[in-house]
Amino acid sequence: MDESGSNGGGQMVHERAGQFILDLIKGPGYRAGDRIPSERDLSEQSGISRMTMRKAISHLVDLGVLERRGTAGTFLPTAVIRRPMSDGMFAHGISEIVRQCGGVPGSKLLVFERHAADLRLAERLGIRQSDPVVVMRRLRTVNGQPFCIETTHMADARVPGLVADDLLGKMSFYEILRERYGIRMYGGEGLISMTSASPREASLLELGRETSCLLLQAVSLDVDDRPMEFLHSINHPRMVEFRGK
Fold first, then answer.
1. Separation of alpha carbons 134 and 153, rounded Å
2. Higher pLDDT, 229 or 64
3. Same domain, yes or no, for 93 and 47?
4. What is the pTM of this model?
């Protein structure tokens, strides 16, 4: 068969090369952010020349199906979570934000404990020093990929009876706040900065050691402008964008 022509069934070879790649990355072995095989490997697997395979890859890159990362290779685009930084920035929980971005949210509970608030945390939450505070740390995922580590601090008096098992069910934390405690989150005050991931954080986010991450520190307010939560969020630098108005 002529590499520049059809395969006898009306399909051009470069189209067949593109379809081979699409079929490959749609399989169960690939997810957003994964590296695809090299041109040589794809050529050997498909029986199509490397030059034709290179053109097919370039075409898929132009379409946004794939992305090149310098000498690292060609990858499936990483899912991007766009987090609002404007009025009503906490009106939607992270699970809902992930769904709005077209992803499937997931969560793994890392820490759930209660301890006494220090002075700084008490001031942020509008409570007294030494008042009990619920602390929960969760690894948040989109389509199975980790994109942030969120630590929530909340006055125990706001969520009496809350236990770790409550966060392992089908309801999101924001849904629990609304339906069980009558708390509706809305706005907040936040600060975004860069920070180096600790070895533990880098491992959880599947990053290299000391990779620079986006740090969000924020006090979230309910619809009555009462401080409800202090949030410390470490975000994957390639998977999260913060957007204002």
1. 6
2. 229
3. no
4. 0.72
